[in-house]
Amino acid sequence: MDKADRAASKPLSVNPFQTSQSVGGVLALQGIYRAVPVLHGAQGCAESVKTVLSRHFREPISLQNIAIHEQNLIFGGGDGIREMIRLVMERHHPDVVALIGTSLTEVVGEDLLGTAETYYRQHKEMFKDKLMCGLYLPDYEGSLESGYAKTVFAVIQKVIRSRGRLSRKKKRGRINLLPGSHLTPGDVMELKEMIASFDIEVIVLPDLSSSLTGHLMTGHTALSRGGIPLDYLREMLTSTYTVAIGSSMEPCARLLQEELQIPYQMFHGVTGLRESDEFFLFLRQFSQSEGQNKYRWQRQFLLDCLLDTRSVFRGKRILAALEPDHLVALYQCLSELGIKSFGAVISAASPAVAVIPEAVQVGDLEDLERMAAGGADLWLSNSYGEQTALKSGIPYFPLGFPVFNRFGSPANVSVGYRGTADLLNQIANIMNSKERIS
Amino acid sequence: MPKGIPNLYIEPDCEHNRQFAKGCAAPSPGEITKGCVFQGSQAVLLPISDAAHLVHGTSGCLQNSWSMLEAGMPGGPLSKFGFSMGLTEMDIILGGQKKLFEAINYIVEHYRPPCIFVYATCITILTAEDLDTVCRKAESLWSIPIIPLHNSGLTGSGNMGNRQAGEALFEKVIGTCDSDPRKLTPFDINLIGDHHFSKEGHEIEAMLSKIGIRVISRIAGECTFSELRSAHQAKLNMLVCSRSMVTLARKMRDSFGIPYFEGSFCGSREIRFSLRQLSFHFQDEGLDKQLHRYMRREEERLNKEILRRYKSLKGKKVVLFTDGIESWIYISLLYELGIKIAAIGTNQNAQEDLSRIKERIHEDTLLVVQSDETRILKLYRERKADLMIVSGRNAFVPLKERIPFMNIDEEQHGGYAGYDGVRRFAQGLMDTLEQPIWKIIRRRSPWEVESYGQG
After folding, report:
1. Which domain holds residue A30?
2. One domain, residues A340 and A288
3. Do β-strands A174-179 and A201-204 pair in parallel, antiparallel, or remain unpaired?
C-alpha cells in the first residue's frame, strides 16, 4: 500500500497521473487575496506549475520564481532569494508572500526559509501588515493534495504565531471552512451558499470560489485576484467551529483546535446522500434554525435521481485514478447506489482510503489499465488518463486535476444534494450513451 | 559531466557568438522564462513517435511535457506514454542507477521501442548519476540505441535544451542507417524547427510536394526513429523559423556537406524568399520554373482575394504581444493584409528574433523589448488599436481587460503557414473583429442602469 510496495513491483511509473506538491501549494495560495507564491526551483519548475494550473482553470496564476542557476550552486543562492523577496515586495506589493522550496532546494541544500526569516527580521518595516510564510514541498513525496494541505497548514500556523494582541473572544455564529484540494471553486461557492443560508458567517481558507472561477473584476494583475483577504483571514482565530472537507485538511483543523480550542468536524467531501445529510444536520444544529426550503426540495430531487440512475449503475465496474480524498468522497457517493466493483489507484499513500473495502493501490495509469483488462464500465481520472480510457473502449469521465480541453470544469458542483444529483446524472449519461451506441 | 559543456555558449553561426560573457551573466530572479533545458529537449524529441522517453527525475519533471502533448503537440503511440522514474527521497540518497537500469529493461520488455531517450534532470545531475554507463550497459544488453541526454534545467532556457537535443540526435542518431537508395529523389530535404510543427508541418509539406520537393525527415515534427537515422541523405536542410537548432544544421553541413538556410512560410513574402532559397540551392532549371509558376499563380490568386474578401482588414491597427519566433513571423503577413502594427511587445527573445523584428517593421511601429503588461496595455490604448494579437499566457492580459484579442498559439489553430495559412489568418482576424462579444462584454449591468432603452 505504500511507496515501498510499488518500488518492489515496478522500477518506474508509466503514465503517472499525479501532479507535484508544489502545484497544490501554488493552488492553495490562489485562494488568498493579493497573495504571491514564490517558487524556489530551476526555471522550468515554476513554468510547468503555472502552465498546468492555467490550462486547468483557464485563468492567470499568480506565481513568481527564484530561478536556481549554476552560479547559485557554486556561490550560494542567498543573494538570489533576498533579491527576489525585495523585488516582489517592491514591484507588486502583495499582502501575502509564500516561499515554496522544491526537491531541488533540498538537494542543493539551500536554507531557503532561514534566509527568508533573516531577511524578514532585517526589513520588518517592509512587511508591516503583511504575511510572509514558507515551506518545503519536494515532489519526491506526496502529491497535489498533500502540497495543498501543507500550505494551508503553514499559513494558519503563521497567522496564529503573528496574531499579536488580537482579541481572543470567540465570535458566536461564525465557522471556519477548510475545503480540500478536491473541491472545485464551484463546490466551495455552493458550500458557502449552504452555510450562509443558515445565517452562519463563514471564513473560507483557501477561498478559490472568488478567485479561480473566472471574473473580470480586477483587470490585469500579477497577484492573485480573489480569495480571502488577509485581515479577514486573521479573524479565523476567533471562530467558534471549524469544518474541514477531506481528511488531508484534518491536521489544519486540529491545529486550530489544539492552539485555540476551536472544535471541528471533518467530512470527506459532502458528496452523496449520507454526507450531505450529515452536513445539513450539522448546519441545523449549529445555527439552531431550519434553513431554507429549497434544500428540502433539492433532497427530494436527489432521492428521485438516485432511483432514476440506479439502473445504470447496477452491476457496473468502475475504475478511478484520483487523489485519496477525492477518491473517498466519490466512492462514498457511488457505493450508495450499489455498483458491483470498484478498482482504484491513488497518487500517494493516505490513511483516508481505509474506508474503501476494495483494494486501492498507489500507482499509475498503467496499473489502472491493467485493472481494466477484465472489462470496465467507467473510467474516472484527470485528462492524463483520457487516451488510455478511450483506447480501452471504456466510457471516460474527467475528474480530478488537471482537466484539459473542457470548458467550465472548475465551476462543476458535486457537493450537497443538488451537486450530487448533477454528478450522478452526468456520469450516468456518459455510461448510458455508450450503451446506446454499442 | 558530459563533454562539450564549455562550448555550449559558443555557436559560430550565430550573431552573438562573440559575446563570451553571455554564459556567465547572473540570472535575474523573478522572471518566469519559457521552460528549461530539460523541457526544451523534450519538445524536440517527443515528436519522434515510436521512441520511448524516460525521465530520470522526480515526478514533477514530467508534468510539463504531459501538458504539451495534451495541447495538441504531435506525438506517436509511444511518445505519448509518460515514463518517469518518480524518484523518491531514498532513491536520491542511495542513488538511482540500479533502478534506472531496471526501468529501461521494463520498458524494453513491455513496449519494445526502437530506441529509448533517457533524460537527466537537475536532481540527477546534482547527485552525479552516471547515465552514460547505465545506458551503455542497457544498450549492449538489448542492442537498441539508448541515448542519454544531459540536460539539467539549471543550465538555461528551453532554447538551450532544443540545441542539446539536436546535438544528441547528431551524435547518436543521424547517419546511423541508410535508407533504400531507390527511394531517394534529387530534391530531398529535412525540415528543422525548434517548435514542433503539427498541422503547420503538413501544410508546408503539402506545398513543397506540389513543386516536387520531398521532405524526408522533420526534426521536432512527427517523425519515426528510422526516418531520422537517414536524415543525412537529404540534399538540403531548411531551418523553419528557428535559431536554437542552428548547431545541428551547422554540424550536418560540416560532416555530411548538407547546406542549410533559414526561412519561414508565413505570408507570401516569406514564402517567396524561402522557395527562392530552395531553388538557389538545387540549381535546377526545371524546378526553378515550376516553382516560379507556382508562386505566381498562388500570389495572384491571393492578392485578388486580399483586395476583395479581406479588404475590411486594411488600415486596422493591431498590437502584437507575443514571445519568441511568434513575435516576428507574423509581421510581414500582417503588412501584406494592409494591417498596421501599432506596437510589438516581447519578452523572451533570442537576439536573432529581435533583429528579425527590426528588419521587418515599418517606422510607425514601436518595438518594446522586455515589456511588462502594464506598458503594453497603455500603448494599446494610447495608439487606439483595434486588436491585440497574443500567444500563450499573454492571452490573459487582454482577456482580463476585455480588449479584443486573438490567440495565435499553434496548439489552438494549427498554424498559419502557406498561402492557405494567409487566408485562414485573414479570415480569423476578420471573424474575431466582427464578434459582437467585444461590445456585449462592456454592457452595463442591471445594477448600474435604470433602463436599457432601445439598446
Report:
1. 21-155
2. no
3. parallel
